[in-house]
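Changelog note: in this version the structure field was regenerated for every chain. One regenerated record is shown below for reference.
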Amino acid sequence: MTVKTRIMVVDDDETIVDTLTFNFRRAGFEVISFNRALAAVSGFTEANPDLVMLDWMMPDMKGPDLCAILREQAPELPILMLTGRSAPTDIAHGLSSGADDYLVKPFSMVELMARIEALLRRSGKKKRSGARLSVGALSLDEDARKVVFSGRNIDLSPREFALLKVLMQNAGKVLTTDVLLDKVWGTDFDGDVKTVAVHIRWLRQKLEEDPKEPKLLETVHRSGYRLNQLGEDK
């Protein structure tokens, strides 16, 4: 599957957010947006963006202050500040707060895209090496080694993580025990085949509302296991 670069937009202007989201998605980026600075701070870790674009004037916090907070959490993250303030002192303040670039409104989408590409190129974040998967309310980020289900962070062992990844990559399909053994444990595995059932049970204990009546990780009689979609994509 294609792994998209994720841009986080922080701006309280709904029109600008809608315009940016439309153009970024058309360019092949994934977009997550916040209309308040404090919401961006609390959601930053889960969002796990490759680049942040933020506005200077926010109702609950100034852009430079938000920039400084995000920069402390992610020293290498590309941050672009978007604002109507064009005075040299404002530009200097924005850059000194941690922004990598500064674009004054009104701006052209062509210039904005060029600046984003340049920031991603310099940061080495143009491409991700790992998978980012989403099936309903369940999401998995391989680079961050993170799983979230219905807003909850799920702690998994490396083997549980690998098993869930394979099931998500084949969501809606029935995978046999032999297939799961090959993909997760390797073709040279010579242990007990029941290990798949054991790990499925552990995943259910962490993901299912009622592990004894599983709805997400379904056992298909005499066939194998299937991961179903529960909840809506975010």
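Spot check on this record: The chain has a mean pLDDT of 88. Residues 6-123 form a domain with the Rossmann fold fold (CATH 3.40.50.2300).
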